[in-house]
Amino acid sequence: MAKAKIAFYWCASCGGCEEAQVDLADKLFDLIEAADIVLWPVAMDFKKEDVEKVGDGSIDVAIINGGIRTSEHEEMVKLLRRKSKLVIAYGSCAHMGGIPALANAYTRESILKYVYEEAPTVTNPEGKRPKTRVSVDGMDFELPEFLEYLDPLDAVIDVDYYIPGCPPTPEITWEAVSSILSGNLPPKGHVFGSDRALCYECPLNETKPEKVTIDTIKRVHQTELDPNKCYLTQGVLCMGPVTRGGCKALCIKGNMPCTGCFGPVDGVSYQGAKALSYFSSVINIDDEDAFRKLVEEVGVDPLGWFSKYCLGKGTIKRR
């Protein structure tokens, strides 16, 4: 029986998803036994030409992480879509745009101007910027184009399944890969993980009252968290109520609130709007000055509060 063929590729991401794949540890040997890896640029010396040479649909599954920020990303994922039977969006950036999609709050021009002209550490009096094509000593070089905005993977190609997380846990990764390799496929569009909010698996859930109310919002550096008490009841923003479970509450167990990397539960199109709605509903302040102070605290970074990973996915997803 022929082995399945798997391709791994990364786009605009930090490299944490590759670390998560390596964190499969002994399961990597099971994967190698069950499948041939035909593309994994971060670990093996494959070229674009290697993918172009194989037949359309000859790769069983392509696992792609990172958002689409350059013309090279766009070109490669379209190529992999054509060559692959199944495509998995792996990690928060491919799933929803991730943290890199926060740059969508700015235009392409303003980003380039800051990076190459205005940043305090930059010395560039002539305002030079990278060119997509340049010749040096008779040799031609080409760089990818920096696109106007960052998009999640499914805004550019059709995606079959999603593995959430920043990065995904090894358990979620293996659950998805093993189910696909075994042919035990969930419905198309399935997001691996729990179908309930993170609070249901949070070890602090029992300390949360039936009705949560808050009269202040603090950042983690502004208070000393009690590790044995629901963070929301301590006035610290935790995205657990509006985030898909399945991560085993790793951040909570590390004494940090959830920041929402697993995305929304089924049926919620935009996690940021759901989060804003939820936290608005639990505010219990009668004093106008105290309310204004809370609004000012949130207003310092509302996208970072509510849309840290999902800005690329929302209806209102860019400037």
Short overview:
With 319 residues, the protein is an alpha/beta fold. Helices cover 29% and strands 14% of the residues. The chain folds into three domains: 4-99 and 151-181, Rossmann fold (3-Layer(aba) Sandwich); 106-147, no CATH class; 198-313, no CATH class.
Order of helices and strands: EHHEHEEHEHHEEEEHHHHH
CATH architecture of the largest domain: 3-Layer(aba) Sandwich
Sequence stretches where pLDDT stays below 50 over 5 or more residues: none
What count of domains describes the coordinates? 3
Organism: Korarchaeum cryptofilum (strain OPF8)
Protein name: Coenzyme F420-reducing hydrogenase, gamma subunit
InterPro entries: Hydrogenase_assoc-protein, NADH_UbQ_OxRdtase-like_20kDa, NiFe_Hase_small_N_sf
Keywords: Oxidoreductase
What can you tell me about this protein's structure?
- The chain is an alpha/beta fold and 319 residues long.
- It contains 11 helices and 9 strands.
- The strands form 3 sheets. Strands 2-1-3-5-9 form a 5-stranded parallel β-sheet, with helices on both faces. Strands 4-8 form a two-stranded antiparallel sheet.
- Strand 6 and strand 7 form a beta hairpin.
- The longest helix is centred in the first third of the chain and has 13 residues, at 71-83.
- The protein is globular and about 70 Å long.
- The relative contact order is 0.13.
- The mean pLDDT is 91.
- Keywords: Oxidoreductase.
- Residues 14-178 form the NADH:ubiquinone oxidoreductase-like 20kDa subunit domain.
- This is Coenzyme F420-reducing hydrogenase, gamma subunit.
